[in-house]
Design a protein that fits this description.
The structure is a homodimer.
Chain A: H1 12-30, H2 37-44, H3 48-55, H4 58-82, H5 87-104, H6 106-115, H7 120-144, H8 150-172, H9 183-199
The structure holds a DNA duplex.
Chain lengths: 202, 202
DNA sequence: GCGGTAACTTACCATCAGTAACTTTGGACC
DNA sequence: GGTCCAAAGTTACTGATGGTAAGTTACCGC
């Protein structure tokens, strides 16, 4: 005789957390496109307008997810870099932390690098993450090669950021049964080319 | 007194070309998401079912656009590489041709690298383009560094492909009024790090 | 206990991908 | 030149889904 479940009220902040958890899972699972707001709401156990009252729009919800991942990513990489001595070690540890985080948080990773580009705003947010990374790396390079023109440093930093991202995506999409490239190997390949090249600039 | 425009019939292949032109323009203009099939149809001057009779679905239309860009990109880069002598020159000329093509075909570029990731299938097609590039580059690297383990060569090739893509996106999204990085500069920055690094491997 | 506010739901609209059934055009063939 | 007829195209619809307005209910402070 079905006692219809009484409407449970939950504090706003807590509900927000629940929704973000569900959204990351649903968006990364089915893809942002195919994921309906109703599906997210159902996972949380509420109805659609609740999502809208918290995040305004589907895009707003995606943006909030991206922002959360951004924070986590920044935390983990800057913590790793802080433990290093010298620019090379900083780049190496930061890069390794980047790959490790993406390994540990697969849904977050796929949300960021596979789903975020659907919306203008989310793509812009992702671009800002990259800008942050680029600035940080350009700073490291400047310490290592102080004579170099800033524009060249920025170009190099973009090379490194792009390389990291591509390696991450390749690692993630390794469908072939072959042995997957480990985070340490990916870091090595990057440092091989990039840091060796940097060390031998005229 | 409005002579209502008589229904003009057009050969299938020609219509297909028209639709692809319109689709690239509309998709890259408003973004794939925000572009309705009706909007594409209106640009062509037909109605929606015509698009479906040619391409089956919105995703199918996107895929056809991506396939076309892929062919053009492959043509232009392999032509450039064919004119080179030795692996370094091949990589340099191929990279430069890549950047030049994206400069010349801005809508095609933005379609490929901003809009393609919305659909699973288009993302897979893009990934295949990257795989093609990676294989080609890994071949060049193998000539230059024949003692190196294949897996390492592949890792390096991914570094290069990712760097190219990132540099292209950075160049494209240069909103700041500053002097935009030229195709030649982008190529230089890439070769600086990557080829110099390669030349000094143990 | 008893308001009142904030959380939540029901019931709806508008847009757009996709489709079925019908109509017209232009070339082939005589 | 007339007459078919198959391909090219249109009208008119459905279903799914992002988004919203108005009403309902649970909890917190007094």
């Amino acid at each position: 005789m079905e006692t219809r479940t009484p409407r449970r009220r939950v504090a706003r902040a807590e509900r927000e957390r629940q929704i973000l958890d569900a959204a990351v899972a649903v968006f990364s699972g089915r893809g942002y496109q195919n994921a309906s707001m109703d599906a997210v709401a159902e996972v949380v156990g509420v109805t659609k307008p609740v999502l809208y009252s918290h995040f305004g729009s589907k895009e707003g919800l995606l943006l909030a997810c991206v922002a959360r991942v951004r924070t986590e990513l920044l935390d983990v990489t800057s913590a790793a870099a802080a433990a290093a001595d010298g620019p090379e070690d900083m780049l190496r540890r930061g890069t390794l932390a980047f790959f490790d985080y993406l390994d540990a948080q697969k849904p977050a990773w796929s949300l960021l690098y596979s789903e975020a580009s659907v919306s203008q705003a989310a793509a812009a947010a992702l671009e800002e993450i990259r800008a942050q990374q680029t600035d940080f790396i350009a700073g490291l390079l400047a310490v290592q090669a102080p004579e170099t023109a800033p524009q060249r440093l920025v170009g190099w930093a973009h090379v490194i950021v792009g390389a990291c991202e591509r390696l991450a995506l390749y690692r993630g999409s390794a469908a072939d049964g072959g042995p997957r490239m480990s985070a340490a190997e990916a870091t090595d390949h990057l440092m091989d080319l990039v840091w060796t090249g940097l060390a031998h600039q005229p």
